[in-house]
Fold:
Amino acid sequence: MKKTVKQMVAAANEQIETLPTEKAISLHGNDEHVFVDIRDVRELEREGQVPGAIHAPRGMLEFWVDPESPYHKEIFASGKKFVFFCAAGWRSALATNTVREMGLENVCHIDGGFSAWKEKGGAVEERTSRK
Structure:
């Protein structure tokens, strides 16, 4: 293996802004910030979600961000600051770096992800299954 996931996450973290969990919690609800949950829908249903966060599954993120993609979501052209998170901060580090490389510059991610968010008392709500 030429590069491990751990090495890729470390390299991404050198290029991106990482918010301490407490700072992210203090920004929650601020109209200038959009919280983006990239976890799998099963994780949201099992563990809950951050109220008001948009769900952008990791597998679709690049397609939703790219304005030339047929899957583009207008929220990503809003000019707001995007706060990405996953369960522990690894996937969100890679995702944040990827969208930054795509040209979405006002981005960051939460140190420790949703797990740290819950541990530090961040708001969580239940997600109902959409079966």
Summary: The mean pLDDT is 95. Strands lie at 17-19, 33-37, 54-55, 81-85, 107-110. The helical segments are 5-15, 21-27, 41-47, 61-65, 90-102, 113-119. The chain has one domain: 16-119.
